[in-house]
Write a structure and sequence with these properties.
The chain is α/β, with parallel strands linked by helices. The chain has two domains: 137 residues, Leucine Dehydrogenase, chain A, domain 1 (Rossmann fold, 3-Layer(aba) Sandwich), CATH 3.40.50; 155 residues, Rossmann fold (3-Layer(aba) Sandwich), CATH 3.40.50.720. Helices cover 46% and strands 17% of the residues. The strands form two sheets. The chain has a seven-stranded mixed sheet with strand order 10-9-8-7-11-12-13. It starts with 7 loop residues before the first helix and ends with a helix. The structure holds nicotinamide-adenine-dinucleotide (NAD). The site of nicotinamide-adenine-dinucleotide has 20 residues, from helix 7 and strand 8.
């Protein structure tokens, strides 16, 4: 069984975590490994290892996406499931944490084969999905169509989120994580840096789903976004970039590779003197090697785990606050909650309402983070973990688990 990455010894210094609660949080409730096998023709079986982890479900169904990547592992799936437990507790939404991994390269198989693999996945997990034990969503390598296939197998609108808006999905789900990163940045400017958006600057690493939407919303609010980047490199303009134009180009070309403007490397981007640095690309970007170069006044983590633990310590010593991923990128799972609620009720939700719930939940978590950080004199990351731990322990008591 996987083991937790949370430093419970550090957390126990600041809040009461009974040994029984710690026991339940240190390991997943359930880890399942199975093979998905599909006969393609008499001489060929398409086989994929599949991992499903429910880390903790005390606050509701296990919630988390399906990662469809050739190198996905049980360990990675478990790590992501655990993050979902803390993220959903911090945002006070009625979900637990789960995740799936299907070890296949989606680019090496046809759409027809992918649909068949997803259907087989539903056949194996049928009871859990139909009973709402686990509610999947898209993650790397899966998309809205895959979620529509899951819905089509079960005919239960709330059994899966991230569906296309015409098939029970949610307007604003696509932009929701970026919307949350944006809102966390605006709160950081207002509550921590005491700055208005129009006087602020930002740099955004990663120009995919999360980074592009975060940059677009920041630009729209008047923040001067001076640099953005993707895997091909970045663009920089100290007077502020034309983000809508860059987004249009990146969507058309698939990357920033041919976009106009002055080029900047990813290392340089991370070292820019800006108010907000939003790493929205991937894990392990701010490390012990470059954390001393960070000149941003605050870091807002759009990606999962972009700051390594060693870098976190260095930033803390240098008094660079970090709004952690479990708060800053919770917009996606908050929107999933709205979609799940919509599926259960049959209500119709518009984009404005999706964004309103995302901002409300991020706002509640942000206020709690500030309160705990000030009261206990801890970093924002520790404050978020304390707040989530208190919620999880109280929920376990409510359910007579401890
Ligand atoms: P994506 O694939 O749409 O975009 C990733 C972007 O990062 C791309 O622009 C890519 O070119 C860029 N990138 C990759 N390697 C890079 C590098 N070394 N330097 C600079 N840029 C690089 O992915 P996404 O959905 O935007 O997710 C980004 C991160 O946010 C991941 O860590 C993901 O787990 C996390 N996240 C995503 C969501 C969501 O709803 N999409 C929700 C929560 C967390």
């Amino acid at each position: 069984m996987a083991r937790s990455r949370i430093d419970f010894d550090a957390l126990r210094k600041h809040t009461e975590i009974p040994p029984s609660a710690e026991l339940l949080l240190r390991q997943p409730e359930k880890e399942t490994t199975f093979n998905l096998n599909l006969k393609i023709d008499p001489n060929r079986i398409l086989r994929a290892d599949c991992y499903v982890v429910y880390w903790n479900t005390v606050r509701g169904p296990a919630k988390g996406g399906i990662r469809f990547q050739p190198d996905v592992t049980l360990e990675e799936t478990a790590d992501l499931a655990e993050r979902m437990v803390w993220k959903t507790a911090l945002a006070r939404i009625p979900f637990g944490g789960g995740k799936s991994g299907i070890a296949l390269d989606p680019r090496q198989i046809s759409r027809f084969e992918k649909t068949a693999v997803i259907k087989e996945y539903v056949h194996v997990l049928n009871l859990d999905l139909a009973h709402g034990v686990y509610v999947p969503a898209p993650d790397m390598g899966t998309d809205a169509t895959d979620m529509a296939v899951i819905y089509g197998e079960l005919h239960i609108p709330e059994c899966v989120t991230g569906k296309p808006p015409r098939v029970g999905g949610l307007p604003g789900r696509r932009e929701a994580t970026g919307r949350g990163v944006f809102h966390a940045s605006i709160l950081a400017l207002r509550e921590v840096l005491r700055k208005t958006p129009r006087r602020a600057t930002a740099a955004v690493q990663g120009f995919g789903n999360v980074g592009m939407h975060a940059a677009l919303f920041l630009h729209e609010a008047g923040v001067k976004v001076v640099a953005v980047s993707d895997v091909t490199g970045g663009r920089y303009d100290p007077r502020g970039l034309d983000i809508p134009h860059l987004a249009e180009r990146a969507l058309k070309d698939g990357s920033l590779g041919n976009a106009p403007g002055k080029k900047i490397g990813n290392d340089e981007l991370l070292a820019l003197e800006v108010d907000i640095l939003a790493p929205c690309a991937k894990e392990d970007q701010i490390t012990r090697d470059n954390a001393r170069d960070v000149k941003a006044r605050i870091v807002v983590e759009g990606a999962n785990g972009p700051t390594t633990p060693e870098a976190d310590l260095i930033l803390d010593q240098r008094h660079v606050p970090v709004v952690p991923d479990i708060l800053a990128n919770a917009g996606g799972v908050i929107a999933s909650y709205v979609e799940w609620r919509q599926g259960k009720s049959g209500a119709i939700t518009d984009k404005a309402e999706t964004f309103e719930v995302v901002e409300n939940r991020i706002g509640v978590a942000f206020a709690d983070m500030l309160r705990v950080a000030r009261e206990k004199k801890v970093s924002f990351r520790t404050a978020c973990q304390i707040s989530a731990a208190e919620e999880l322990v109280a929920s376990m008591r409510d359910r007579d688990w401890i």
